[in-house]
Amino acid sequence: MMIKALESTGGGTRLDLKVIAGAPGAEFPAGYSEWRERVTAKVSSRARDGAANRELLETLESFFGLDSGGASIVSGRRSNMKTVHLDIDADAAGEMLKNGLE
Question: Average of pLDDT values for 51-69?
Answer without folding.
Answer: 97
